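A further point concerns the way the authors explain their paired sequence and structure data. Nothing conveys this as quickly as seeing an actual entry. An entry of this sort, consisting of the sequence and the corresponding backbone structure tokens, reads as follows:
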Amino acid sequence: MNAANQTIYALSSGSLPAGVAVIRISGSEAMHVVKSLAGSVPAARQATLKTIRTRNGLILDRGLILTFPGPASFTGEDCAEIHIHGGKAVVAALLAELSLFEDCRFAEHGEFSRRALENGKMDLVEVEGLADLISAETEMQRRLAIEHAAGGLSALYEGWADRLTRARALIEAELDFADEDDVPGSVSDLVWSDMERLRSELAEHLAGGDFGEIVRDGLRVVIAGPPNAGKSSLINALAKREVAIVTDIAGTTRDVLHVDLNIDGYAVRLYDTAGLRETEELVEREGIRRALKTVADADLVLSLAEIGQPAQTEFPGFTGRVIKLGTKADLRAGANGAYDLLISSTFGHGLAELHQLIINDLRDRSPSLSLALPSRLRHRTLLKQSLDALSMAVSFDSQGLDIRAEHLRQSANSLGRITGRVDVEDLLDVIFSEFCIGK
């Protein structure tokens, strides 16, 4: 039997040992497997306690069995779940027994979700949202993933694609039936005004892509400044543990260090960098080069300077926001006018206010209260292609209707590639390789 048509199984719950382990089965032989193991097939969607035996009659365990006849299942195929005790030996024995069934095999990474996609139970954005939901570590990541996995983003894109399809249909009607009395003489009022609105909606949505990626991947905050300005002390204080070595020796930090924080439900990736100064020491120069590269890729820079010294406000390649921090407030007095905030990492002075500044920066980046936002580079690239094609159709009214209709088709095609409504086979292996086995 073709591998794609074989029945698959896998451990779908967490690592062992555990209180309960869930074995998931999907495919045409799922119900036969359940009957062989439990003696009968329980009623659909009803948890039933069964004794699970090998085909030789040896008892493996007692557990709950649920069945989900297709197509009303996660994958669209016949599915079953076996809930057993989560001991390593118990699970290993059941998996070994499953391997003995003809046309049954262990599932590959993401194969259950891939079958759901192929059987029309999910689209590509929903699958990606499910992967993000499994890996979500903060509340905002969870909310963004739920929006995608539940189909909120897909519904938006499908609505736009429908509008493009209707516009193309009206254009084709005018091209093919221009001499008919019941076909409008011009589609400009019916089509192009709506396409102009759609272009604005798409552009506004695309502008939210930066924030979507920040929610998903984390806000990149880089601590920069001269040696001994207190950069390592600050990252230790914010992380509430020793991430970086702190000494009085200038140039102690030579490489880029980072720690992941959860600030008000947002993921924040905080980077400590080498002190910025002119030096001939080879290793330190490399650390400074890496520091400047990290700053250039940052979303936000915390520029530190001891109170009384100027805080750097411009960095090569960085055009974002810089927050100027005067450090060692417990040792030096100074006016706050030269800095956005005075802090003392030793005694915690100003750290709560710094947290709030970071939160405010995150909220300022949010284009709206909705999290129906693109969160991956793939989304943004295809949205940009769709917007460019739509702009060509709307702006160049000197072109023939047939050429403008082709631009609309290209725009709809790019939207379809986001959800997988058109051929995206080249993307699937990459996407599903990120999944755990059993999902």
